[in-house]
What does this fold into?
Amino acid sequence: MGRQNPALADGAGARIKEILSPRQGGFTLVELVVTMIVVGILAVVALP
It folds into this structure.
């Protein structure tokens, strides 16, 4: 069991790094949706 824990930790760390590392070439779909929602809220608050 002592050998499995470091391997699992390394695998999880690699996955977290892949998720957190910014992808080059534009926004991801989630970032685009969140940005559109924030801009929409700001527009609704600012226009009237």
Observations:
- The chain has two helices and no strands.
